[in-house]
């Protein structure tokens, strides 16, 4: 699993670093708009996702990872949420 995570981190990082849209332009010396992305992984069963469904956080309409997965992959219904990995990335 660690090898796959490292591969994904490299893929995302390289895509941001090499994308010409990530450059400010000649007037700024081709300075980058975004630094190296921060990439993290979470279990689909992480309790933090349940907190998003509360009115204080987001709303009851917020999808849990397992709800989004079964909506878009109905043939996989019954997949344990522990088997889902959520990929989070931020462009600082």
How does the major sheet shape up?
2 strands, antiparallel
Total number of strands:
2
Order of helices and strands: HEHHE
Calculate Rg over CA atoms. 17 Å
Mean pLDDT: 92
Overall shape: it is elongated
Numbering strands along the chain, what is their spatial order in the largest sheet? Answer: 1-2
**Segments where pLDDT lies below 50 for 5+ residues?**
none
Helix content: 25-40%
Quick overview of this protein structure:
The chain is 32% helix and 13% strand.
Defining key terms:
92 residues, alpha+beta, two-stranded antiparallel sheet, 2 strands, elongated
Your description of this structure?
The chain has a two-stranded antiparallel sheet with strand order 1-2. It is of the alpha+beta class and 92 residues long. The protein has one domain. 1% of the residues are buried. The chain contains three helices and two strands; from the N terminus they run αβααβ. Helix content is 32%, strand content 13%. The mean pLDDT is 92.
Protein topology:
Blueprint: H1 2-18, E1 38-43, H2 48-51, H3 65-72, E2 85-90
Antiparallel strand pairs: 1-2
């Amino acid at each position: 699993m660690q090898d796959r995570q490292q591969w994904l981190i490299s893929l995302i990082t390289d895509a941001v670093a090499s994308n010409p849209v990530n450059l400010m332009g000649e007037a700024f010396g081709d300075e980058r708009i975004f630094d190296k992305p921060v990439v993290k992984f979470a279990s689909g069963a992480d309790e933090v996702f349940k907190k998003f469904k509360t009115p204080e956080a987001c709303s009851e309409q917020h999808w849990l990872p397992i709800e989004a997965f079964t909506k878009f992959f109905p043939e996989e219904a019954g997949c344990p949420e522990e088997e889902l990995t959520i990929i989070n990335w931020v462009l600082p």
